[in-house]
Specification:
Elements lengths: L14 H5 L22 H10 L1 H18 L1
Helix pairs in contact: 2-3
Length: 71
Amino acid sequence: PGHTIRLGAGELVGEIEILAPGAGRIADVFAEGPVRAIAVAQDDLRAALETEPRAAWALLGVLASRFRETA
């Protein structure tokens, strides 16, 4: 809480919520300009991660980076 992180093109938001839905938001996101985004359903993400383990490792890398940035 109280941290600001600037993200760039192609970066993820909502990675915690899709992995653990319903526990409440832990962040607010504000755009400084136009944004194009896609929504991915949890079941679709799960299927993709099971099919492509390298993507799962990449997502873990994003989570670890975010944890370091806010710790």
